[in-house]
Amino acid sequence: MLQTEPQGALDHGAMSPIFPCRGCGTFIERSTQHYRRVKGQVLCSTCLDAQAVSKSTLAQRLLGILTRLNLLVGRAAEG
Length: 79
Ligand SMILES: [Zn+2]
Known about the structure:
The protein is mainly alpha-helical. The protein has helices at residues 32-37, 45-56, 58-78, and strands at residues 18-20, 27-29. It has one domain. It has a two-stranded antiparallel sheet. The chain binds zinc ion (ZN). Zinc ion (ZN) binds next to helix 2. Zinc ion (ZN) is lined by residues 21, 23-24, 26, 43-44, 46-47.
């Protein structure tokens, strides 16, 4: 009788489920509790770091958007 490849490598069984990262799509192991806490927005550590960086500059980005809107409104008023 031929021995086939041992099964179990892909069988996740009772371990934490795997979710695709919302940022880059990488499959990561997270608990269902974590999944619920982040409301399905599961992020890998790389994307979490990137998010932390983008959060710190959110005010600057908003300011940039507001400035751009101001320019557009100003142009519309002129035209
Ligand atoms: Zn990611």
